[in-house]
Every structure is written in C-alpha cells, then in structure tokens.
Amino acid sequence: MVINMNWNELKDSIPDDGFVKTYEIYRKARPTVTLVVLRTVTDPILFRSTDSERAETQEFNGTIHAQVNSEKFVSKERLTGLNLCRELDENEKIICSEYTYNEPIGSIPKSQNADLLTYGLAGTVSKATFSQKSRVIEGYTYSLESYDLMNKETHNALYESGTMNNADNKHSEALFNPVKVQPNTHFVHFITLEAGTKEMLLYVIHNLLNTGRYGARETRTGRSMKNEIIGLISSTADSTLSCGELICDHFIEAKDSYSRDDIQAGISEYVTKHKRADWSIYHADDFKLDGGIEFPVWLSNLLKVGNRLEKDNSEVLKSALEILRIQGLGTVE
After folding, report:
1. Any residues with CB less than 8 A from the CB of 220 and at least 6 apart, and which?
2. What would the pLDDT profile of 143-197 be if each residue is shown by its tens digit?
3. 299 within a domain of the structure (yes/no)
4. I want to staple 320 with a disulfide (CB 3.0 to 4.6 A). Which of 61, 123, 199, 258 is the partner?
5. Contact 147/181 with Cβ under 8 angstroms?
6. Is 2 a member of any domain?
7. Exposed, middle or buried: residue 206 (CB in 10 Å: 0-12, 13-18, 19+)?
8. Tens of pLDDT along 274-310?
9. Beta strands 280-283 and 293-294: pairing type?
10. Would you say the pTM of this structure is higher than 0.85?
11. Structurally, how many domains does the chain consist of?
C-alpha cells in the first residue's frame, strides 16, 4: 500500500537503469524498459482487418492465429490516458484545452503533454512539418490459441421498430457474420518504452491497467479484455521481444486453450533464451520467470498508483503528468 508517498519519493525509489533523466526530442541514449503484458479476452471481441468481419490471421506451426496490429491497442490506451490528463488538469498544467488526439494544433508548445511525449505525434506548423517520435514500441501480437474462422455469428440488421420486420412487415435480409475472438483467448504483448522517463512508465502502466474495451463496436459491447502486467525487463540498451517469435518457438503444440502454467512456462523459456547480461528481470508473485526476481516494492507501488487503488494515487499521477508537460515545453522552447 502506498502511504503518504508523493511522486518524487516514489520516483527516487525506482532504479535508474532503463530510463533517461529527462525528455529530449533527439535521443542520444536509448535505454529500455519492456513490460510483459498478458491480455485475456473476457467477452467476444471483433478485431477488424481488410475484411470488416474478422481479424487478420497469421500461421505458426500449421495453426491459424488471430493477428492484431498494435494500433488496435495503442489507440484505445491513448484515449484512456487523455481522459486522465483532462480529469486531473488544472489551468492547463497538464494538457492544453485545444489538444485533441490525432488532430495536431498549430502550436508546438500547446501540443506538449504526456500523450504526445509518450506516444508521439506528427503535424504541420507554419507550413513546416514536425514530429516527436513515440517512445512506446508495441509490435504486432497474436492469439496464443488458434483462431477459428468457422466460428461465425450471424446477425440480422434491425429496423427502427427494434425487430427484423419493417413497417410493411417485410423481413430483414441484411446479414453480417463477424468472426470474433472468443473468451479465454490470450495475447502476450511485449511493450517497450525506449529512451523514456519514469513519468512515462507510470503513464503507460496507468493506460494499460485502466483500458478494457478494445476492438470494433466496443462502445456497444463493453469491457472485453483484461490486461495484466506480469513482468518487466529493464536494460541499458535494447530489451524488445516478439510475440510471433514466442509462439513460433515455444507454443508449438496447437491448443484451444492454454493454462496459466503453460503460458508462464513458455514466456519464461523465451525470456531465458534471449536474456542479455545487462537485463534486470522482474515478475509478478504468481508468474515466475527464470532468472528474475519478484516485483520489488517500487514496482508494486507503481502498479498500485497506476491502478488508482487509493484516493492519493491521483495526486501522484497528477504530479508526474505536470512534470512531463514542463519537460516538453522546455524542450521545444
């Protein structure tokens, strides 16, 4: 439990490995922190691709898996973060009231906030283009379990009456057949913060732990996914990992459902295989990774603040977000 701890105290308790001290547009050093995220589908979820009624697919070891572009996750998590910025803001100390995600405004200073600094943005000011690159690297991810393309749901389009019959009592013939990813399907996502600050890590953790609605029609279907941070790897250099490589090398046997023990064993083998000497590995108490240590107090506190389990957590988040805006403003000035 975080007791009487402000952001500066929590920040000082976090090791410096994996972070830069302050935000800079031009990254001279590139230490990394990689979050090992287990995403579990809780309600049927539709990830659209070029086919509007099913996800993209990828074949590993003779099995078809659902393939999901990282933007399907990032866009929803950014919106969660923007909502936090606006909720905690006072007098534009965190975010300018004109700022809107994916709609660059004609002022670089006004654009500086945790969203842009962490996830990046490109735009045009005075007919000149500018960009501040994302610090977050999220690659494609794939369902660990097989994706059943034959498991279609057939739906009729309803009329205004709320039935499938119109005013002339003619039956609707409009059908759509979505192929949804089913509950208890798992995705492992390796999310890397490159040349990021400790404030950015807290922001990314908050956005991950507080986003649960993904996919198409998410405003109608509601919460569909549970995100867990089960591991963290910090490095003075590169710690990026690949979900596709994980499945190809360590989830060879096709299964309709993998147990938590199966998933833990596969991830542990994969991380061990690619571990470098400069990596520090941490894991959740119920998700052990070989060569790692259980989440230390500083990381447990970060997760609790990110989850906003206590009222005081909002003040800690607010301080971190204000610092990010100050650093962004200082950089562009």
Report:
1. none
2. 999 987 645 544 455 555 545 455 566 555 544 457 889 999 999 999 999 999 9
3. yes
4. 199
5. yes
6. no
7. buried
8. 999 999 999 999 999 999 999 999 999 999 999 998 9
9. parallel
10. yes
11. 1
